[in-house]
Protein 1
Amino acid sequence: MLSQRLEEPKVICVTGGKGGTGKTLVAINLATMFKNAGYRVLLIDGDVENPNTYLLLGAELNEKKAVPFFKPDIVQEKCTKCGLCSENCATHALLQIKDSYPIPILTVCSGCKLCYKICPENAILANFKTIGWTYRSKAHGIDLLIGELKPSEARSAAVVEDLLHQLQEDFQDKKYDIIVLDTAPGAHCDVELLIDKADFVIPVTEPTKFGELDLKKIIELIDLLEKRYKVIINRSSLL
């Protein structure tokens, strides 16, 4: 066991451009290795569309918390149909026909709240919907923080942002020595959010043509974020 703790937690991000390469198993094995060495370990499952670290570790999901997401509610009694909100919505999430009230299209709303902030009549209320959940758990001496996107929702990055907000609270409490981040496959925005928080990145791939192509994509993202990394080539029996 360690005689002293780390002064600052170290963050390791396990990622990969392709699914099915064993990324999550690598993340769990890393967390287990550090736990066995005497470190206090937090494993964060940021693959919010398919979280399964808790399943592989045989853990129960506890401390369920909803992840809220802004949605605009139009107060027709106050709305003057000026069109300012729809004209300035970058994602075109407010449909407005001339001389009619704006209609929110929630599936494309980014949650930026610009419409709510600029409405001159205060005719837009800030309401919220649940787009996912986070959970806390513990298994084999490893603490788990898990994100889950609600089925039919598409804003996975918002759930990851909520996980990172909770991570920041853990940083302040200095509860952990090692934090292992498990990302979704791919090189999209929620993966970028997790890689950006890491001190070191481990992309996991397989020795196939698709594995090689997707590895190049994720390395481009890692280089863009100026992170140190080492690649694990899993399933070497395919060579």
Protein 2
Amino acid sequence: DVYKRPVWGFGAGARAIGDPPPEAELEALRARVGYDHLAIDTTAGTALKAVPALEIDLSAIAKGFGVDQASAALLGTGFDDHLVEVGGEIRAVGEREGGGGWRLAIEQPDSDGRAIHAVVELSELAMATSGDYRSFHEAGGRRLAHIIDPRTGAPVGHGVASVTVLHERAAAADAWATALMVLGAEEGAAIAERHDIAAYWIERTPEGEYATRASTSFPSLRQARPAQAAAEE
């Protein structure tokens, strides 16, 4: 059943990927995608689906929301200096031990290891990154990432490896990182500037290198350092 199994090999009940799913199958899936198929009544606390097969997946905001809730709880008990992280979504409040903002690493988007790409120093801000380098598989010589473009029903196919977003709320940073990752560098950069979103892109080049760009409101980055040096700091 096209409505009961993820067609690109991700999620519970996902099928193994060989050939890409046929366009007719993607078209049927696209017909049930979109927030406009969901009516939410905040007063009554209800949600009504206009399309019976519609499913709600909160994975693009749930971790960020959890970070915000944990941070609020810590503030409520007097912990004015803290760092909360849930699955890569982070909120930094106050100062780190010794003074100054919390130093957070933006990861190099390599699937075969972990390394620091750059470091940003934050306080009273959250940070979230969306990328294609952890949850993916190869099929037909193509990288299939878990981030699906709802306009096509297929994994994103541009050269962006990751997008990092800073925001006052972790849930918003989480959501914007995913949205900008779907849009790609050019369209995403225009949207980020229009809405004054602090975003940082790492793109793959045809030469196998990385290129970067940042929105106007993204802060200055510290230069990447070896992992040992970062740990000793």
Protein 3
Amino acid sequence: FELIVWRKRRPNVAELKIKFASGLYDRFQPLYTKEVVPEGIELDFSVIDDPREIFDRMARGLEFDACEMSGTEYISRFAAGDCPFVAIPVFASRMFRHGFIVINTRSGIKMPKDLEGRRIGVQLYTMSAAMWIRGMLRHEYHVDLSTIRWVQGAIDSAGSHGSPTVLPLLKQPDIENNATDRSLSQLLEDGNIDAVLGATLPTGLGSHPDIARLFSNFREIETDYYRRTKIHPIMHLIVIRRDVHEANPHAAPALFESFQKAKEIAMGHMRFTGALRYMLPFLPDDIDEIDRVFEGDPWPYGVALNRSTLEAEVQYMVEQNYIAKPMPIEDLFVAGIG
């Protein structure tokens, strides 16, 4: 109905076709099903469940008009002054990462400070998940990151994690690429590395007797962390090709509004507990926790409601040599949105 009303109101304006790529998240699904239609835009939604593939295709060849994008990769390019896209404050992925530090218990690691001087696996040193974990380790547990030797590679196969096109760090840490014929998961089980951290969990967790999380009570720790810091780590945001944005300035606000509406619909579906929409047996209790901890919205869009998280992200990226200096977080996004 809204789309019909818009067409009657602006009959001479052709719809802009936007080729969009993202994972099919619950908060985006109403855009995929066209329950929500951005005003003046025909959204061609390509579902790609591997974020690394999206990032690589966008960074290397600008294959999409808009897409999900790594937060650290976008901010690095923005700070370097050579960014072919703009961003809107819609966050495709965000996740607490305390539970993504996994150790070999034979290494003697008992607490975060024990990670100092160790050899630690990471899918991609520059990935957002790894940046957030290192920032948390430094600020919450005073871990000296400069003492760590990093082994970079895929979690569940030999070789690299995708084919990333990322900007070089301003100062290179002690990183080696995994040149063996084993995955990081196998290296961890064999004791060749002491721990793994990043965006996914090693295969041995839950099945290998020596593989365990550093924080066994990670949910409790993450809840306390959020209550104290108001940081809910942002992994991915939404970017639009700069040339598309400059030629069609109405697209960014129209997309932001439609993502906001899609999220509201998804939240409504989640909160209907007459029949559980997701295979989460304790979802009603999870919803109660969302209301207690996040005041009803665990996934806000916009700059103002995410200031603590965004400022921490920029600060950590300066500290970890992604970018030379901080910038106002408002500058990262299309002006006047959110």
